[in-house]
Amino acid sequence: MTIATQINPIIEEIEALCRDLGMVQLMEICGTHTVSLFKTGIKSLLPENLRLVSGPGCPVCVTSQGYIDAACALAGRNDVTICTYGDMIRVPGSGGSLEDLRARQGADIMIVYSAREVVSSARKHPDRKFVFLAVGFETTTPATAAAVKEADALGVENVFFLCGHKLVMPAMNALLAEGEVPIDGFLCPGHVSIIIGEQAYKPVAGDYGKPCVVAGFEPMQLANGILFLLRQLAQGRSEVENVYGVAVKGAGNKVALQLIDEVFEPAGAVWRAMGVIPGSGLDLRGSYKKYDALAHFGIELGPDVEPPGCLCGLVIQGKATPADCKLFDTGCTPVKPIGPCMVSSEGTCAAWYKYNR
Ligand code: SF4
Q1: Residue 57 CB partners (closer than 8 Å, separation 6+)
Q2: Ligand 1 atom nearest residue 320's Cα
Q3: What's the predicted TM-score (pTM) here?
Q4: Which residue is closest in CA terms to ligand 1's atom 7?
Q5: Do 243 and 221 touch, CB atoms closer than 8 A?
Q6: What is the pLDDT of residues 60-90, one digit of tens each?
Q7: Is 164 in the pocket of ligand 1 (CB under 6 A)?
Q8: Mapping DSSP to helix (H, G, I), strand (E, B) and coil, where does residue 127 land?
């Protein structure tokens, strides 16, 4: 059976439900969902009165400009090598991006594929200080925690972590508590849910009455995720359902959660244009604080300011779409991005540029 044969009946049921429900707005909180909805063509098959908006699910996009500025300040030091996943080097800070600093001043910046690479590089070059830009949601945090533990076990003293990891649930709660964006249900992130488990969304379904469905990234997963949300709305239910059971379990990955808890403790964190969300970030815990880059170098995160005209802060909260931004495809393109949503391969603006111009 072809995918089209399997999907068609689902789309027909989605259309039928939407005819009865009227205008429906669902939010995905995952950059990979944002891209997959376009890439698979699912978004183009949905009825007009079903609106999908992106939430704060792209880790690069939610990172504040103040964090980028702190990373750039460290990159400007002669004794520091900045280590980061690829997308971060192109995010503009107030004085340019890390990539700009490398071109202008020869800043030492290393693209890594895992946090543990940073520890091994630090061991090979004891004369330099290595700073890892620790950003990402619960998906990437366990790898950072493992690297911190490894550095500690090996007695490595020249590696530091610029802590920018974030937790998804406090951001969902903040959006709902603010209540500015009408959200009828959440397509919950596949990767993050592997770690935190489907039960994590129970308060969203229970306390706020918003249906939640965990889904993966294939066309059938996405279509079923949307269908299950609409069925809940049509039946007046508000529950957590999971169509990605092959990867996501009820309580998540307990080993990974324990690892995070051993190395990090919850702290307030600045989300781009959302301000400080209490308990939404992670700081190093106890004896691991010696690896904290801010403390070691005696610097602070800069203010969170948006580039002039950029609506990234609104885009990541579902309050605007890239089409609302006057700079989209005029002053801001993937080649010359102005905001992080155009830089990141998981950013909403980059996805719109690639699939929806
Ligand atoms: Fe920001 Fe560019 Fe997106 Fe506009 S199009 S919101 S400037 S990233």
Answers
A1: 28, 29, 30, 31, 33, 34, 137, 168, 189, 316, 346
A2: 6
A3: 0.94
A4: 310
A5: yes
A6: 999 999 999 999 999 999 999 999 998 899 9
A7: no
A8: coil
